[in-house]
Amino acid sequence: MRETFFDIAVIGGGMAGSAAAANLALHSRVLMLERESQPGYHATGRSAALFSEIYGNAPIRALTRASRTFCHATTALHRCAAGVAARHALCRQRSAARRIE
């Protein structure tokens, strides 16, 4: 039997575990372990945010419509933060690639 060695083991294949494993894999041999049949099955799969003004009964729909401005402002802020993080990760990858060349 052939032995395989890893520098780091990440437990969990949800959003946090997958992101951690991807970043660590830039510089290390990473093993990601997931108990379920698919990644993102537990908290990640159940925490997706959805803004729908037609969901629920009349009081829920009224509350949803009343929160529209807050929801859209928060979404724009998250997109901005995600864009900054993605650009930062891309810069790190390019920098690492230059060091290898």
Layout of strands and helices, then pairs:
Elements: E1 8-11, H1 15-24, E2 30-33, H2 43-46, H3 58-66, H4 68-100
Parallel strand pairs: 1-2
Question: Explain this structure to me?
Answer:
The mean pLDDT is 75. β1 (8-11), α1 and β2 form a beta-alpha-beta unit. The protein starts with 7 loop residues before the first strand and ends with a helix. Helix content is 55%, strand content 8%. The protein has a two-stranded parallel ribbon. It has helices spanning 15-24, 43-46, 58-66, 68-100; strands spanning 8-11, 30-33. The longest helix has 33 residues, at 68-100. It is elongated and about 65 Å long. The protein is mainly alpha-helical and 101 residues long. It has 2 domains: 1-48, no CATH class; 49-101, no CATH class. It is built from 4 helices and 2 strands, in the order βαβααα.
| Oligomer category | single chain
Low-confidence stretches: none
Which descriptor suits the 3D outline?
Answer: elongated
Give the termini distance in whole angstroms: 34 Å
Characterize the main sheet: 2 strands, parallel
Mean pLDDT level = 75
How large is the radius of gyration? 20 Å
- Helix percent reads 55-70%
* Topology, number of strands: 2
User: What strand order characterises the main sheet?
Assistant: 1-2
- The number of distinct structural domains comes to 2
